[in-house]
Amino acid sequence: MGDDEPMTDPNAKAVTVAGPSDAGDGAVDLSVHPSGIVPQLQNIVATVNLDCKLDLKTIAFHARNVEYNPKRFAAAIMRIRAPKTTALIFSSGKMVCTGAKTEALAREAARKYAKVISKLGFPAQFKDFKIQNMVGSCDVKFPIRLEGLAWSHGHFAQYEPELFPGLIYRMQMPKIVLLIFVSGKIVLTGGKNRDDIYKAFENIYPVLTEFRKLPNPNDEDVLAQLAAPSAAGAAALPAP
């Protein structure tokens, strides 16, 4: 489902959400996002084949915003501001583009890099463009009991708070890795398209609500008891 596609079902329920989302401001199609939450795409990694051998030293010398240190890394690193992205350019002609936040921007950025290389005299083509990974994130706005989730979903979940503060959940269908934090922040990675990201979140959302951390009523009781003596003492003080 693209960013600007209209709702096809005129009777579909919609909910208005606050803040930006990949679906745009306004109504969210609950037939696609039953939770009412739309994960935002944060990074797209795409690859393309320029179909020619490249002299990375020449590219680094003549092009702007390029880093190349073959002793540290085998690729030249090129950056552009619009769309704000980074490209890893290999001498084989393969290129990896990262940093775009939509599929269209990923393709646009890759074409711009190819054009820069072509202007340097290389017979660069634009073949086999493919999105390899999408990263999305969202916030369910409630804390989560990660220990209980890890115990209940041990086949898919890994939680070692002494090593990493989030729970790692490896979903099989779709094949997405989720990083789940106690705060309710969620990161989803491994998608080949945005539908994978959306479906994975809708799959996990009922599980998250099941392990929602509820406030402890005893905490309020303790605070009230601590405050009571102070209030009584203040009341006993003579008026100025």
Automatic annotation (TrEMBL):
Keywords: DNA-binding, Nucleus, Transcription
Transmembrane segments: none
Pfam families: TBP
CDD domains xref list: TBP_eukaryotes
GO MF term list: DNA binding
An example Gene Ontology CC term for this record: nucleus
The family this protein is said to belong to: Belongs to the TBP family.
Annotated protein name in UniProt: Transcription elongation-nucleosome displacement protein
Biological classification of the source: Eukaryota, Viridiplantae, Chlorophyta, Mamiellophyceae, Mamiellales
